[in-house]
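S1.2 Input.
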Amino acid sequence: MSEDKDKPSESAPATAEQGASDATGQDDSTGVTTASAPPAPEARPSAAPPPQAPPPAKKGGSSLVAWLALLLILVLAGAAAWSVQQALFREQALLQRISELESVAGGEQAELQALERKLQAELNGAVQSTQADVQQQAAELGTLEEQLQRQGEQIAAFSANDHESWLRAEAQYLLRLANQRVLMARDTESALALLQSADAILRQLDDSSLHEVRAAVAAEQAALRAVPQVDVEGIYLRLSALVEQAGQLRIFQLPEQEQRPELEAADDWQVRLQRGYEEAASKLSDYIVIRRRDVPMQALMDPQWEGLVRQNLRMLLEQAQVALLSGNQTLYAESLQRAQHWVAQFFDTDEAAARAMAREITSLEGQTIQVVMPDLSRSLNALDQAVKKRLQQGGAE
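S1.3 Output.
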């Protein structure tokens, strides 16, 4: 504030000098001094006016600007210092984060290295196990190749005699199978086909030592052709039809009553008495049947035994079917004879159906279901003897 008070006093000489300059007409901007006309005596004042001091406001405004500039500089310096400090803090935090990430990365790197070592160890173990398996398989393959080679050599060493041995064994098998078909199934057609196949093999061998065998096969074929053919299927179906018919026979049936016209009522008591007597006699005739017979009368069967009679008849017919399939002639005939006895029970109640069934059973009784099968062991025994004789002579192996 002392400096502001001193500044107006210092500006006074300058004002005087400025007045002098203005009096001389010197132009500060051009530096040329020009003479000006002296003022008129009337216009000049009696005394020069005192110099006016410049307004203090201008000097105070420049000082305020300087202070504002200084304040701005200080603010900017503080802001710069704060920014630098914050930058240092961020740099320190970043360095700390980088250090943490490096430590984490180092731990993960260690885990990865441990996992890599583990996987490498497992891979090495798997590779070693696989190599051991491959070596074992290779050894087994080599052994198998050696076995195949030996078998191939054995097969290559087989001669025509070995092939003939196989054919003889096949013929033996066919002859045994033909014997089984005749003894167990009584199937002559299958046995004949098997004998023909065996004879074809023997013909292929073309061996004179098998002449007796082929002769036995030919004789057995002729014996099979001479066996009478039994229509087992047809007889079985006829018996099945009788079984169904047995369930339809009638044992007892009440006679149907005739419808009589109703008579008109009569006024005369004698007429009513006569009609009553006729109605009573008619009703009595419904319960009493008078027949004339030349043979003794047989009592009718009780209806409560109807199921038992039918069941016995069906059981005997089915037993005849079983005997047919097994070729048991005796059982077959006995079953049909007993069935005839039960069919006869229906002659009085269902005469037409019962007598038709009896005729069919009689026809079936005359069927021959059991035939004598030829013995096919001769050809098989002859072939077995030929094979043994050949083995004794060293013909095989």
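S1.4 Remarks. The longest helix spans residues 56-157.
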